[in-house]
Design brief:
103 residues, mainly alpha, elongated, Anit_sigma_mycothiol_RsrA
Length: 103
C-alpha cells in the first residue's frame, strides 16, 4: 500500500514495521520517523489506527487469562537459559520420559 506521495520514510517500510512501532520495540529515532510519516500519510495513519484498535480489542478480550504457574516457571527458566547463552533443549526436560509400551 502506498499513498502515492513521496515521504522520507516509505509507506512499505512503515507498514512492514508497524507492529514494532505499536509494541514500542524500535529505537526512538525510528519511532520519530514513523510519527512524522503518520502525520503526512492518511492511509498509513488509518492502517495504524485499525491495527491499534485490533490490538486493544485482543488485549481486552484475551488479556485476563491467568497463566498456569508451572508454564510460567518453564518459560522464565528457558529465558534464563537463553540469556546466559546455554543450550536450550528442544523438548520439555521436566516431563517424564516416554517409554515404548511392551507387547
Amino acid at each position: 500500500m502506498s499513498c502515492g506521495e513521496p515521504h522520507e520514510t516509505d509507506c512499505s517500510e512503515v507498514l512492514d514495521h508497524l507492529y514494532e512501532f505499536l509494541d514500542s520495540e524500535m529505537p526512538e529515532v525510528d519511532r520519530d520517523k514513523f510519527k512524522v510519516h503518520f502525520d503526512e500519510c492518511s492511509p498509513c495513519l488509518e492502517k495504524y489506527g485499525l491495527e491499534e484498535a485490533v490490538k486493544k480489542l485482543v488485549k481486552r478480550c484475551c488479556g485476563h487469562d491467568d497463566v498456569p504457574i508451572d508454564l510460567r516457571a518453564k518459560v522464565l527458566g528457558r529465558l534464563d537459559l537463553i540469556r546466559s547463552g546455554q543450550t536450550v533443549p528442544e523438548h520439555d526436560v521436566t516431563a517424564a520420559p516416554v517409554t515404548p509400551q511392551e507387547s
